[in-house]
Design a protein that fits this description.
Layout lengths: L2 H15 L11 H8 L3 H13 L3 E4 L3 E4 L4 H4 L1 H7 L7 H22 L2 H13 L6 H18 L3 H24 L3 H17 L3 H23 L13
Antiparallel strand pairs: 1-2
């Protein structure tokens, strides 16, 4: 195993074991290198790598600290990777959304506070009667982010956040090219909101499935892959 990987594993073990807790400052470089049996150069490379994935935070003139290790922080690295997706993988991202988003919506119907449900309703009311596609998509992203947050599961919320970017272009494309797409989106958002407000998790799950699957099916048709649900990798 490369020495940098060894160094990363040793620091990771210190965090997992509880020797280093979120917010703790690491020992000084020379001391930590000696303690772990590492060269200072390999330790520096390990710290750089762990900073990139938001496990460590180097504060100039102060030292190196373990971050909060909150899911949204750690999964931020996943968002960075997702940004490198190709257009022919959008269907794959939508398929994952179709798995996760209905679950989050059902959980929101159980866990979301009354105040947050009211705010969700206000998001719907903010849209003009004939919104632009850009305004609709921006509202759509806020709407689904609010629901994911309302699920009460920060990991699920962060995962859905990371998936929202690659599918935003597909939503805009659909709004521009499919007749009635804007009205359909508003109707489905209203149905999802009403199911959450009524505390009906299975109904909320069903509407969320219909909503995401509708975008997915439209894109399959547009890319000519509707007859083969496994051919996302062949889309161009």
């Amino acid at each position: 195993m490369p020495v940098t990987d060894v160094a990363i594993d040793k620091i990771k073990d210190m965090i997992i074991s509880g020797e280093l807790a979120p917010g703790d400052r690491l020992p000084k470089e020379a001391e930590l290198a000696q303690r772990l049996g590492l060269s200072r150069s390999s330790l520096r490379e390990a710290v750089k790598a762990l900073c990139l994935i938001r496990v460590l935070d180097v504060r100039q003139g102060d030292g190196t600290y373990v971050t909060s290790l909150e899911p949204n922080l750690l999964l931020d690295a996943m968002t960075f990777v997702v940004d490198f997706h190709r257009d022919d993988t959008v269907l794959d991202f939508l398929a994952v959304r179709r798995i996760l988003e209905p679950a989050a919506t059902a959980m929101a119907a159980v866990h979301m506070s009354d105040e947050d449900i009211e705010e969700l309703g206000r998001l719907l009311d903010e849209l003009a009667d004939s919104p632009t596609v850009e305004a609709l998509v921006a509202n759509d992203l806020q709407f689904h982010r609010k629901i994911a947050d309302g699920s009460g599961n920060p990991v699920l919320c962060s995962l859905l956040d990371s998936l929202s970017g690659p599918t935003a272009r597909a939503r805009i494309w659909r709004g521009l090219t499919q007749e009635g797409a804007v009205a359909k989106t508003r109707e489905q958002h209203t149905a999802i909101y009403e199911a959450i407000a009524a505390r009906e998790p299975e109904l909320a799950r069903s509407w969320a499935t219909v909503h995401v699957a509708g975008v997915e099916q439209w894109l399959r048709n547009a890319l000519g892959t509707a007859d083969d649900p496994t051919s996302a990798a062949e889309a161009s």
